[in-house]
Amino acid sequence: MPNIIEKSLKELQEEFKNLGLPAFRAKQVYKWIHHKLTFSFDEMTDLPKELRDRLKEQYSIETLRVKHKTKAKDGTVKYLFELADGKAIESVFIKTKDDRKTVCLSTQVGCPLDCLFCATGKLGFNRNLTAAEIISQAYLIANEHPDISNLVYMGMGEPFLNYDNVMRSVAIFTSDEGANFGQRRITISTCGLADKIKEFAEEKTQVRLAVSLNSADDALRGKLMPVNRKFPLTVLRQSLEYYSKTSNRMVTLEYVMLDGVNDREADLKKLINFCRGLDCKVNLIRFNRFGHDFRPSRVEAIDHFVKGLLGAQINAVVRRSRGEAIGAACGQLALRPVEGLAGKTSN
Asked: What is the rounded distance in angstroms from the CA atom of residue 4 to the CA atom of residue 104?
């Protein structure tokens, strides 16, 4: 039975027409789901009971189950969601001092890319999420935290390995008749799948692109991120040039800073060389511990990278991680409790 949550309005209108139902009924149902965040046909009170019963026979309206929540002192909330098949994923709500409210979405159960500095990769890969499962994360969190301002596809999994479902969810989030979410307030982060970056460029969307770089040295990046063996830096760079030229948009390069690994002077010089001539900005991210031997770079090393990049006329900022104490920060999602939680938990 198809899940109605992932249907576009156009698809729903066509299917309602085939069922002998007027188009305005499709708009009513769509508004209940994507404006009022209602996930029960019985609660769609402006629909005749006969129609509600008929919809139950034609569609499911299944969402995720909140199995566990953990709240950090900084206001970050990590959600453990149970899927219909018993699998689990994590998503994160982040509120910053400027009142920005962001939901970090997962796109896969686990991840196949096995980046050394990311806890999710240690889980291995199970399956892709459906578009409905991606959408449901945002809507269930929005029910508890209204007025979400930003969506980032930076949770568990590689979004571009689930390209069709990710783009379907984006289309529904941003549709005028749906959630009407601004495209520029959505960011998709990839480990650098060059072929998909080019495909994404052809979408002509205003959705932002972020690329997890972490080293501008092929040998080192290949050790940290096995995906680099398939898409080495020259290929990645070409895809980013194509993206910027085709979409007329800047790309964000994410650089997780690891003490004594990728934060040396030689690493900085290679990063500057990679960025030169590319329409980009660099987000420097202090490594968030999850049990690996890696250590976060010293503050002095991070500051030196910022100064070096800015001195080379490359836009660079230090991205402050939130939720590290509860295992909710960048690279920490791993379906596990964290010892010594600095926060509250609930079921």
From this structure: 23
Q: Say whether 228 counts as a known binding-site residue.
A: no
Instruction: Give catalytic residue positions.
Output: 90, 330
Helix, strand and coil in the chain, % to nearest 5: 40, 20, 40
Confirm or deny that 323 is annotated as ligand binding.
no
Is 212 within any annotated ligand binding site?
A: yes
Residue 214, annotated ligand binder?
A: yes
Global pTM value: 0.93
Q: Assess whether pLDDT exceeds 90 at residue 78.
A: yes
Whole-angstrom Cα distance, residue 219 to residue 229?
9
pLDDT in tens, 81-99: 999 999 999 999 999 878 8
Beta bridge pairs of residue 128: 108
Beta bridge partners of 344: 71
What's the CATH fold of domain 4-58? DNA polymerase; domain 1 (1.10.150)
Q: Coil, strand, or helix at residue 143?
A: helix
Tell me the CATH number for domain 191-321: 3.20.20.70
CA–CA separation, 322 and 283 (whole Å):
15
| Pick among 1.10.1200.120, 3.20.20.70, 3.90.1570.10, 3.60.20.10: CATH of 63-186+333-347 | 3.20.20.70
254 appears as a binding residue in the annotation: no
Q: Domain residue spans in the chain?
A: 4-58, 63-186+333-347, 191-321
Helix (H, G, I), strand (E, B) or coil at 305: helix
